[in-house]
Every structure is written in C-alpha cells, then in structure tokens.
Amino acid sequence: MKDLVAKINAEFETFKTESESLIEKGVKAAGPRARKSTLELEKLLKEFRKVSVEESKK
Questions:
Q1: Up-side HSE of residue 14: CA atoms within 13 Å toward CB?
Q2: What is the spatial distance between Cα 43 and Cα 40, in angstroms, rounded to a whole number?
Q3: What positions belong to coiled-coil segments (predicted)?
Q4: For residue 38, what pLDDT is reported?
Q5: In this prediction, what percent of the chain has a pLDDT beyond 90?
Q6: Are 30 and 21 contacting, i.e. CB atoms less than 8 angstroms apart?
Q7: With a threshold of 0.85, does the pTM exceed it?
Q8: Cβ-contact 18, 33 below 8 angstroms
Q9: Is residue 12 over pLDDT 90?
Q10: Distance, CA of 14 to CA of 46 (rounded, Å)
Q11: 27: alpha, beta or left, given left = phi > 0 and alpha = psi -120 to 50?
Q12: Do residues 38 and 31 make contact, with C-beta atoms less than 8 angstroms apart?
C-alpha cells in the first residue's frame, strides 16, 4: 500500500508541474501531459480504493 501511495504522490507531482507549465508559462505541450497524468491518477486512485477496502475487511 505504501508503494501505491508513493506512485500516487509522484503522479500528482507530475500533474502539478505540467499544469503549472501550461497555466503560468503557456507551454501548450504541457496540456496533453497534464491530461495524461489525470488519467493515470484516476487508475491509481481506483486501485487505492480497492486495496483500502480490502484492508479494512481484515
């Protein structure tokens, strides 16, 4: 579970960096990278929810 949380944090940092590049610096190529990060975050957060529910049942 710690590994999963670390992956979520790393992906969020990627999203944060890319979205700041898009908004503040106007780097248009950062937009697709930020959107890709949101899709990966969605997958990781669903996995976290699944693992968390399983852990709570023990």
A1: 16
A2: 5
A3: none
A4: 98
A5: 97
A6: yes
A7: yes
A8: yes
A9: yes
A10: 18
A11: beta
A12: no
pLDDT tier for residue 48 given thresholds of 50, 70 and 90? very high
Written as six digits, the tokens of 50 are 């699944």
The whole-angstrom separation of Cα 13 and Cα 17 is 6
CA distance to 10, 24, 37, per residue, from 30 (Å): 17, 11, 11
Total residue count of the chain as it appears in this document: 58
What is the average pLDDT value for the chain, to the nearest integer?
96
Nearby residues of 33 by Cβ (< 8 Å), 6 or more positions away: 14, 18
Whose tokens are 């990060």? That residue is 37
Q: Reduce the secondary structure of the chain to three states and give it as a string.
A: CHHHHHHHHHHHHHHHHHHHHHHHHCCCCHHHHHHHHHHHHHHHHHHHHHHHHHHHCC
